[in-house]
């Protein structure tokens, strides 16, 4: 244990001291990061809304539009109009309150990728929770019968469509970003395109999660 140079009796720093310091530093760091995090979330919401409206507009102008009924065409056009109004309002609020560079293309693509990766992490934690009884049976010898295993595998099968959807979204965002900025590699390029088989084998401490797009604070 490290010596406490401020202690006249020459005593060591205690674990309680380090714990207290960590809590104080984390609180200060969180206070500084809170406005940045709030701004990041607002930007992601804006960029996702823009992407959704872009897809809707493409559908309205594309050949598939002839398959739509008149009321469906009108409804889609109204959805686009409302979306454009919301986007315009969000941009004005961000510019007025936060003063952020909204139209920075690299920022937009990177934040969309960051958001897609966060959603992947949520799926990873759910999968880990569903697998945990099986892991425990293999590592600490807890009992898990055939019925218990079947329930786990069924839960994973039920979750698979949502996981695959999140993976596809991540792959799309990764490709969009690296196509525009090939000099940057926000994740290990050997993991792209990401597959369900590879992703489902990731532990939560895999290096995939530790590359600057996802931040975690670990207690000492």
């Amino acid at each position: 244990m490290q010596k406490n140079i401020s202690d006249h009796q020459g005593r060591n720093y205690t674990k309680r001291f380090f714990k207290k310091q960590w809590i104080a530093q984390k609180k200060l760091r969180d206070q500084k990061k809170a406005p940045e995090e709030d701004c990041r979330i607002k930007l992601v919401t804006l960029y996702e809304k823009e992407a959704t409206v872009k897809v809707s507009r493409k559908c309205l102008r594309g050949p598939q539009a002839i398959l739509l009924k008149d009321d469906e065409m009108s409804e889609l056009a109204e959805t686009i109009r409302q979306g454009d109004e919301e986007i315009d309002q969000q941009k004005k609020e961000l510019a007025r309150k936060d003063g952020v560079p909204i139209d920075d293309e690299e920022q937009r693509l990177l934040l969309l990728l960051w958001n897609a990766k966060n959603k992947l992490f949520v799926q990873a934690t759910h999968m880990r929770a569903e697998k945990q009884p099986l892991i425990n049976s293999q590592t600490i010898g807890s009992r898990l019968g055939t019925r218990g295993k079947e329930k786990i595998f069924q839960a994973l099968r039920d979750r698979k469509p949502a996981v695959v959807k999140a993976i596809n979204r991540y792959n799309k965002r990764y490709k969009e970003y690296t196509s525009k900025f090939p000099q940057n590699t926000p994740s290990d390029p050997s993991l792209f395109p990401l597959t369900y088989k590879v992703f489902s084998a990731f532990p939560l401490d895999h290096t995939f999660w530790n590359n600057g797009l996802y931040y975690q604070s670990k207690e000492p």
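Helices lie at 15-61, 70-98, 105-139, 146-180, 196-200. The two ends are 14 Å apart (CA to CA).
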